[in-house]
Amino acid sequence: MRTESPETASPRKATPRTIALWTLVALIGAAGWSVLALARGENVSAAWMVAAALGSYAIAYRFYAKFIAYKVLKVDRTRATPAERLNNGIDFHPTDRRVLLGHHFAAIAGAGPLVGPVLAAQMGYLPGTIWIIVGVIFAGAVQDMVVLFFSTRRDGRSLGQMAREEIGPFGGAAALLAAFAIMIILLGVLALVVVNALAASPWGTFSIGMTIPIALLMGFYLRVLRPGRVTEVSLIGVALLLLALVAGRWVAESSWADTFTLAPSTLVIWLVAYGFIASILPVWMLLAPRDYLSTFMKIGTIALLALGVVIALPTLKMDAVTEFAKRGDGPVFAGSLFPFVFITIACGALSGFHSLISSGTTPKMIQKETQVRMIGYGSMLMESSVAIMALVAACIIDPGLYFAMNAPAGVIGTTVQSASEAVGHMGYVISPDDLARAAHRVEEQTLLSRTGGAPTLAIGVSEIFSKVTGGSLRAFWYHFAIMFEALFILTALDAGTRVGRFMLQDMLGNVYRPFKNVSWKPGLVITSAIVTGLWGYFLWVGVHEPLGGINQLFPIFGISNQLLAAVALAVCTTLLVKSGRLKWAWITGIPLVWDATVTLTASYQKVFSSDPRVGFFKQRSVYQDGIDAGKVLPPAKTMDDMHTVVTNSTVDGVLSAVLAVLIVVVIADAARVCVRHIRRPALSTLSEAPYVESKIVAPAGLIPTKEEKAEEPDAIGAEASG
After folding, report:
1. In Å, how far are 110, 127, 317, 522 from 43, measured between CA atoms?
2. Which run of H or E residues covers position 25?
3. 94 preceded by a cis bond (ω within 30 of 0)
4. Which residue, of 33, 74, 123, 430, has the greatest Cβ tally within 10 A?
5. What does the DSSP 8-state code read for residue 167?
């Protein structure tokens, strides 16, 4: 087997200019952290949160990510990736790094970074800020990049299949089962958020629907009409996207509004059909260009939000650390700061869902190993920036309004008077007139109990943008943000469905070998139908029964996602040890220990806590006692609802316990394999694909270096002479 030749860029001597630049970046980040951590009682501008985040991200990407890519993983620019070796134009397809960056970011950036930080704002702005930034640098982005690297070395194998091949059949089977079950839960939750966002929004439905034909045009443009002309197709796509956004508002205000105002059940059918089609079509035709297109809107909106914060300098009105963080009895979600703030934030710092994308579509499309740093680590930093802006949006609005929007009706009542009184008992002041005025300014009937995080984010976005563009556009920005959130989440749904298909094919391939070929047409149709059918079923029931279907599984969304991250980090640590990188195993080993501690603690509390707001089985007991006494307890409205709550609590409690046990099995089996390798390395085997020399010349980052630019003419000349 060939000895690895890692890409080692010629060492660059630090110049006074680069030293001054990075010193300035470090000072900006340090200043932001200092103000956030030391401020006591005085007003703090949200711009300091942005400064702390951007400064930390820049340093982490430049130094820590580069160290991992070139020193630890030893990425090899001469090694052909699966996209090059197995190119079949369906799932394996070498994709321009800019398009793939857009696809990967759009695929991983779902509801989590938008909703999680908004809900975590209940604890104050400081705990969330620390975890989002520190967590992504040392855990989330590391996981994404390392999983992407090892999957690329293994023909794009899924996470569960890598666990089976590298850890063993026992731990691997547990990982496969846990990963697939969690994937279905995550997809169902993402789909439900999309349905809720689009159900009464003809603007959003039209604009998002138009991204499909625009993406098809872009796909054929790059594949057939003008191959390689990424800049051209980007300009065309962005122009058409902006036109679709503007036209969406025209449609919403026209006689066509009723046509694009779809019932939730109709949206379910369309989403399931779209997920199935996107899963079986060639990746270059719809999935990659659509995700790339949506990235312009996602990153553009987040960048404008950051710019708006710098211009308007809004003040953080939420406390740095609230009393709810100390008591654990918050109205938004119950539980103490540890572990539940980490579980709630989830995707903005560390997400198991990302590991499925990093071992799903992306490793089958990446051109060069050297691009794992930009696509794996860089995309996760981009998602973390989304989470920071979501936290900013939640913390700059009046805390009284925040709690009135995010507390359930059972806590604050259904009128502005009762809400004002309830919020006052929490320690925050907001008048009934202020609550009514806040709803009127965004053209809503009411903002009370608009739980889930998305409406709160939209209010924060409208607050920032209206300070820059004028208060008369506040309602426009609010409804724009609602539509933006739906687009943000939908791109994770279609890519996730395709990844679920890969996972199921890998599982079935262990029984019937033709399924191993993920582009085998009968297999891809069958597995796509099964995956969409599973999450579609839970979604359909959830839409028709407010306490059933995917609503039943929603409470374990965060824990499931973080447990999946523990599986990914366990696989990464095992592969680092088995591939001769034992001294670097701490890079994923430390995040693994932390994530396992957090999630298993949360799982234990969810199963055994005596607080009915936290413990599933205690909640079941309380509602069962209510049934026995003939009482109806909120949020139930009828005795049938009471029985449904009992069932849901039982299912959630059992699933929490089962998933936790499966993850413990995976971690224990991974530890066994690592110890055995350290003691007797000769017994270990790696399922890494053989080395094949790459013929593709492509830059590692967005902007080619001088050396990479010099290679391109040589490659073109060699191809012509060949």
Report:
1. 32, 18, 8, 61
2. helix 16-38
3. no
4. 123
5. T
**Residue 246: both structure tokens together:** 């503007």
Helix, strand or coil for residue 424?
A: helix
Tally of CB atoms within 10 A around 720: 7
Candidates 187, 209, 207, 210; CA nearest to 272 is 187
- Quick check: helix, strand or coil at residue 315? strand
> Over pLDDT 90: what percentage of the chain?
60
Give 82-87 contacts, CB < 8 A, sequence gap 24+. Answer: 82/152, 82/155, 82/156, 82/363, 82/364, 82/689, 83/363, 83/364, 83/365, 83/366, 83/367, 84/367, 84/694, 84/695, 84/696, 85/155, 85/689, 85/692, 86/155, 86/364
What average pLDDT does the segment 450-467 reach?
88
pLDDT value at 445 more than 90:
no
Whether the CB-CB separation of 340 and 599 falls below 8 Å is answered with: no
Give the whole-angstrom CA distance, residue 211 versus residue 234. 13
Count of Cβ atoms closer than 10 Å to residue 460 Cβ: 27
How many CB atoms are closer than 10 A to CB 694?
19
427/423 Cα distance (integer angstroms): 7
The set of residues, in sequence order, having a beta carbon less than 8 Å from that of 358 and lying 6+ positions away, is 104, 143, 144, 145, 147, 148, 151, 376
pLDDT one-digit tens code per residue, 633-675: 877 888 998 999 999 999 999 999 999 999 999 999 999 999 9
Kindly list the distances between the CA atom of residue 8 and the CA atoms of 142, 152, 708, 713, in Å, as whole numbers in the listed order: 20, 19, 13, 21
Side-chain half-sphere CA neighbours of 594 within 13 A: 17
pLDDT mean over 7-25 = 75
The structure tokens listed for 235 are 């300009």
- Both tokens assigned to 515: 């399924």
How does the average pLDDT of the chain come out, rounded? 89
Note the pLDDT of residue 721. 43
CA 353 to chain centre: 7
Backbone phi, psi, residue 154, to 5°: -125, 40
Integer Cα distance of 585 and 578 in angstroms:
10
Rounded Cα distance, 565 and 343, in Å: 11
- Cβ atoms 209, 259 nearer than 8 A: no
The pLDDT score that the predictor gives to residue 713 is: 60
CA angle 340, 341, 343 (to 5 degrees): 60
**C-alpha dihedral over 393, 394, 395, 400, to 10 degrees?**
130
**Alpha-carbon gap, residue 7 to 74, rounded angstroms:** 7
Determine contact, residues 121/325, Cβ cutoff 8 Å. no
Taking the CA atoms of the chain, what radius of gyration do you get in angstroms? Answer: 25
Distance CA 496, CA 360 (A): 9
How is residue 150 written in tokens?
A: 């090892």
Cβ neighbours of 288 (radius 10 Å): 28
Cα–Cα distance for residue pair 359/585, rounded to 1 Å:
20
Whether residue 171 has pLDDT greater than 80? yes
pLDDT digits (tens, 9 = 90+) for 294-353: 888 788 888 899 999 999 999 999 999 999 998 888 999 888 999 999 999 988 899 999
Q: Tell me, what amino acid is at 589? A: G
